[in-house]
């Protein structure tokens, strides 16, 4: 299974990930419909991508039209700054 990795130091707060996810959900660019939210850290004022747990537990099925079948979530392929990536999770069974 692929696992989403957040590289918080690379996030620039552009919110493309939120817009892409919400558009795919309901045809609206509404961050409240997205599985990812960009928070501001209180002390540093830096951007912090935060996922709903369900996004981390299983593949949501939302993919970029050019990457169908890749298993890469739309939020990841939409991020231009490398703040989101996916890695194959090792199975230890
Ligand atoms: S994993 Fe899927 S549902 Fe979650 S934020 Fe990314 S595109 Fe949206
Ligand atoms: S995770 Fe990527 S797409 Fe989302 S706000 Fe940060 S830089 Fe932008």
The gist of it:
The chain is α+β, with helices and mostly antiparallel strands and 93 residues long. It has helices at residues 16-26, 53-57, 74-78; strands at residues 2-6, 36-40, 47-51, 84-88. Helix content is 23%, strand content 22%.
Q: What is the CATH top level name?
A: Alpha Beta
Number of helices: 3
Query: What share of residues is helical?
Result: 10-25%
Q: What Rg do the Cα atoms give? A: 13 Å
Strand order in space, largest sheet: 1-4
CATH architecture: 2-Layer Sandwich
How would you sum up this structure, described in words?
With 93 residues, this protein is of the alpha+beta class. It has helices at 16-26, 53-57, 74-78; strands at residues 2-6, 36-40, 47-51, 84-88. The chain has a single domain (2-88), classed as Alpha-Beta Plaits (2-Layer Sandwich), CATH 3.30.70.20. It is built from three helices and four strands, in the order βαββααβ. β2 (36-40) and β3 (47-51) form a beta hairpin. The radius of gyration is 13 Å and the shape is globular. It starts with a strand and ends in a 5-residue tail after the last strand. The model has no long low-confidence stretch (mean pLDDT 93). One iron/sulfur cluster (SF4) binds at residues 21, 34-36, 55, 60, 62, 73-75.
Indicate the topology.
Elements: E1 2-6, H1 16-26, E2 36-40, E3 47-51, H2 53-57, H3 74-78, E4 84-88
Antiparallel strand pairs: 1-4, 2-3
The protein binds iron/sulfur cluster (2 copies).
């Amino acid at each position: 299974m692929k696992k989403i990795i957040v590289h918080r130091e690379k996030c620039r707060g552009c919110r493309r990930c939120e817009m892409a996810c919400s558009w795919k959900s309901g045809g609206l660019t509404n961050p409240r419909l997205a599985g990812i939210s960009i928070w501001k850290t209180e002390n540093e004022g830096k951007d912090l991508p935060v996922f709903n747990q369900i996004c981390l537990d299983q593949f949501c099925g939302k993919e970029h039209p050019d990457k169908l079948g890749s298993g890469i979530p739309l939020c990841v392929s939409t991020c231009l700054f490398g703040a989101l990536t996916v890695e194959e999770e090792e199975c230890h069974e």
